[in-house]
Design a protein that fits this description.
This protein is α/β, with parallel strands linked by helices. The chain is built from 5 helices and 5 strands, in the order ββαβαβαβαα. A hairpin with a 2-residue loop joins β1 and β2.
């Protein structure tokens, strides 16, 4: 930042930072026990369908592998991961363990 004449100049760097921040997508993770049809499951898939994929990067962690709502998530082309249930509960940091498994794949 500097002063040129009577104008305060933030520089190209801050403008580039603003562009970079707007290009990054917000990461959102849904943790589902199943893809069955139910109130919570339907609300989750409807919310996923309403999210703007240019702004939101959606990750789905699921415990069951099959169900009628799975195809709707597949159409969205979101990342779907079935974490190993045993490794999730080996520590009090279950969400962190699930994210580590996703990063490894």
């Amino acid at each position: 930042m500097g002063v040129v004449g009577n104008q305060l100049i933030f520089g190209v760097r801050s403008l580039e930072w603003g562009k970079m921040a707007s290009l990054r997508r917000t990461r959102v993770a849904f943790c589902l026990d199943s893809f069955a049809i139910g109130g919570t499951e339907l609300n989750a898939v409807r919310t996923a369908e309403a999210l703007d994929p240019d702004r939101i990067e959606l990750f789905i962690f699921h415990l069951q592998t099959h169900g009628p709502l799975r195809s709707r998530y597949e159409r969205l082309a979101v990342s779907m991961t079935r974490p190993d249930p045993e490794s999730l509960f080996t520590s009090n940091r279950c969400p962190r363990n699930a994210l580590r498994q996703t990063a490894a794949t």
